[in-house]
Design brief:
This is NACHT conflict system C-terminal helical domain-containing protein. It comes from Pseudanabaena yagii GIHE-NHR1. InterPro entries: NCH2 (IPR054501), P-loop_NTPase (IPR027417). This protein is an alpha/beta fold. It is built from 31 helices and twelve strands. It has four domains: 258 residues, Rossmann fold, CATH 3.40.50; 78 residues, no CATH class; 92 residues, Arc Repressor Mutant, subunit A (Orthogonal Bundle), CATH 1.10.10; 213 residues, no CATH class. 59% of the residues lie in helices and 8% in strands. The strands form three sheets. It has a seven-stranded mixed β-sheet, with helices on both faces. The chain has a three-stranded antiparallel β-sheet with strand order 10-12-11. The chain has a two-stranded antiparallel sheet with strand order 1-2. The radius of gyration is 29 Å and the shape is globular. The relative contact order is 0.07.
């Protein structure tokens, strides 16, 4: 059990008073509805439950475990202030009304929220609705924990609002019947609040809560369902404050009035500060374990910690690969651990996980063996890794992040009995899983008498899923099943780093599955057009780069529906990122901005003159951006296209003319665009399903390139063959 210090005990008493104040009108509201309530009992029950709630919250979120250390430390002692930048990527909208609502909220934002280097606490104080986005392990969950604690410590904190924090882990959501109201009520119910659902509704209606929804990407429910549910919940209870987090790759649907911010990766100052804190805490822990230690010994350890931190920083400066890995808290903690133990640094993130996890497993197994009867002890790191990979893969496939202990032991026992050899002699026990909890890989929680098991960070689970796939040679089975599922992206990247000597199988499997997304004549026609244009281009860029560039021309435009139009615009983001992996010379920002403006103008039914001007602007931006590609002017003649578009100026219908007239004019613009560029005639009749297939195709190709880049070694011959087939119909 964690002992509460004086400050935390004071916080608990203040939280009790804040709950009493928040619920002071509840008994009267019950009586007005014709109900009965024992007010004296109610006040007593609230006091007791609020005290338990505050204690649970502090124990759950005020402490953290540095990887490799068995000692918990306070979050404040290791936390580094995060910076953010405005996130401007394209999301999906279900309707024009949703789009207009999002724009209305954006226009209401103050200017500061559109910049970079925004301080997280300042933004949390200013904004009622926040969407925090970032790459894996960048610190999204830690930020939510930090803000929640600041809210809990109010008014003795830098958080300005008197709201009570409720932390909701989205990985607990696994059924369409799950809802946020139920999840919040359960947080109060398990602490003993009477009438928890009614109390929850009361506090939500009064605006008493700070709702922290962590890991939108970790839920097994569809992102469409989650985004719609969150929007409806916020509309029902708008007076509370909300912070939601998600990985970038999974976030494709807008949450309406939420300000979207991307968490920046750490710069040198952040990294140096974290390294210093890591070594200080680590060496303080060593001093505490030495019962004979003196104040002089502690002082010496502090000096050593400072020296070791400086040494670690110098090593990172000399190792470019390790320096690139150091831009997230989890990876940097692994690097600090390896530097502290005088071990060499790995070549990619998968190697970093493998080396750090194996190190702490070895140390924990040794401690376990020393404390147990050697005659009965057969636990080893190999056995623990097998168990971890089995648990990780099984739970990820079943979309279960939280495993009841009974189910887990039955599953592991079933696995163990299916083997012969040393493994069949292993007994699954609570003590066995406690070994894993001590090193920070897993958590064992007991709530209301029910014990459950979960990985302490989803990236640990993803790493062991990747190891399971590699160990069991499941690449050809997994890729077709999960390639288009963004929830599996990090697993594929980790797998690419693990598969030393055989990453080509993964790359070829991705290529084959990607090709299967081009499954209609319209999609094939787009790639055929790109290939023909590429053949007749004279630029010095790689052929694959020129094919990707041509996609910016072949992208279907002038669609009537907003949803597929925005998906296609988002697809250009994938194309732009894919292009940058082969060539950095053209800057597609202007093209992207023009394309987005045109899509929005069409969706919001702007006047025809504005639409035509935007099309002419897009033509000019494409010409300037793609000038180095040097397309054959017999096929791609921007001057001719611009002239034909400008010839339509005299035919522009006024906005007061019937919609059918303006729609005919838009179709006329479309015909000029398609005919002048010799594009497939039915390009703009592409279906929503084909749009999604095209986006998945681009996503798969980009993921394939990322996997190649993260791998330690790839056959030059194999990769050159794969590269030659990107964005081509090859019949593989």
């Amino acid at each position: 059990m964690l002992a509460m210090n004086i400050k935390q005990e004071q916080t608990i008493r203040e939280v009790v008073q804040r709950f009493k104040a928040a619920l002071s009108g509840f008994p009267e509201s019950v009586r007005k509805r014709g109900g009965e309530i024992d007010e004296a009992y109610f006040v007593h029950a609230i006091s007791k439950a609020a005290s338990q709630y505050a204690r649970n919250y502090i124990k759950s979120y005020a402490f953290t475990q540095i990887f490799g250390s068995q000692k918990l430390t306070t979050l404040s002692s290791i936390y580094i202030g995060q910076k953010f930048q405005a996130y401007t990527s394209v999301r999906s909208f279900e309707s024009v009304n949703d789009l207009e609502e999002a724009f209305a909220h954006d226009l209401q934002r103050s200017n500061y929220s559109k910049g970079n280097n925004l301080l997280g606490l300042n933004i949390a104080n200013e904004e009622v609705y926040l969407m925090i986005l970032g790459k894996p392990t960048v610190g999204k969950t830690t930020f939510l924990k930090y803000i929640g604690l600041e809210a809990l410590y109010y008014p003795e904190s830098r958080y300005k609002h008197d709201v009570l924090p409720v932390f909701i882990h989205l990985w607990k959501f696994c059924l369409n019947t799950d809802n946020l109201l139920q999840a919040i009520a359960e947080e109060f119910e398990k602490c003993g609040f009477p009438e928890s659902r009614e109390l929850t509704i009361w506090m939500l209606e009064q605006g008493n809560l700070l709702i922290l929804v962590d890991g939108l990407n970790e839920s097994t429910l569809s992102q469409r369902y989650l985004s719609q549910h969150l929007k409806e919940f916020v509309k029902a209870y708008p007076h509370n404050r909300y912070i939601v987090s998600s990985r970038l790759v999974s976030y494709q649907r807008n949450l309406g009035q939420f300000l979207e911010l991307e968490m920046q990766t750490w710069d040198d100052l952040h990294i140096q500060e974290y390294i210093h804190k890591w070594f200080t805490i680590n060496y303080e822990s060593r001093a505490n374990r030495d019962v004979n230690g003196t104040s002089n010994d502690s002082s010496k350890l502090a000096d050593i910690a400072s020296q070791e931190a400086q040494r670690c920083w110098q090593i990172l400066q000399l190792n470019a690969v390790a320096r690139d890995l150091a831009n997230s808290p989890l990876s940097l903690s692994f690097l600090c651990l390896l530097c502290d133990r005088r071990l060499s640094l790995p070549s990619n993130v998968s190697g970093l996980y493998q080396k750090a996890i194996n190190l702490v497993l070895e140390e924990q197994v040794l401690n376990y063996q020393l404390l147990n009867d050697q005659g009965q002890n057969i636990i080893s790191t190999d056995i623990l890794e097998i168990l971890l990979t089995e648990i990780a893969y099984k739970s990820f496939e079943l979309c279960q992040s939280l495993l009841p202990f009974q189910d887990l032991t039955e599953y592991l026992q079933e696995i163990l009995t299916s083997y012969i050899g040393v493994l069949e002699k292993v007994e699954v026990s609570f003590n066995l899983l406690k070994v894993l909890q001590k090193i920070g890989i897993c958590k064992i929680n007991t709530v209301a008498g029910l014990t459950s098991f979960t990985f302490s960070h989803i990236t640990f689970q993803e790493y062991f899923v990747a190891r399971y796939i590699y160990n069991h040679n499941l690449v050809k089975q997994i890729v077709p099943q999960h390639l288009s599922d963004r929830r599996w992206q990090n697993i594929f990247l980790l797998l690419a780093g693990i598969a030393n000597g055989n990453v080509e199988e993964l790359l070829l499997s991705i290529e084959i599955q990607a090709a299967s997304y081009i499954n209609t004549n319209k999609l094939s026609d787009i790639l055929e057009w790109i290939e023909q244009i590429n053949i007749h281009s004279r630029g010095t860029q790689k052929s694959v780069a020129k094919r990707i560039a041509a996609l910016f021309l072949a992208r279907p435009r002038f669609l009537a529906e907003i949803s597929p139009a925005l998906v296609l615009t988002r697809m250009l983001e994938l194309a732009r990122e894919l292009y940058c992996t082969f060539d950095l010379s053209p800057n597609f920002d202007k093209v992207f901005a023009s394309d987005l403006s045109l899509s929005l103008a069409q969706a919001l039914d702007f006047d025809s003159n504005t639409e035509l001007n935007l099309v002419i602007q897009l033509c000019n931006d494409l010409e300037q951006t793609l000038v180095k590609i040097d397309f054959d002017k017999r096929y791609i003649n921007f001057m001719a296209l611009s002239a034909r578009l400008e010839s339509l100026i005299d035919q522009v219908p006024s906005y007061d003319q019937p919609f059918e007239v303006r729609e005919d004019f838009r179709n006329q613009i479309s015909r000029v665009w398609i005919q002048t560029l010799y594009l497939p005639v039915d390009l703009n009749q592409i279906s929503h399903h084909e749009v999604e297939s095209l986006e998945n195709y681009l996503y798969a190709n980009l993921l394939m390139v990322k996997c190649k880049n993260i791998a330690i070694a790839v056959s030059r011959k194999v990769w050159e063959e794969i590269e030659s087939r990107i964005l081509r119909i090859t019949g593989i």
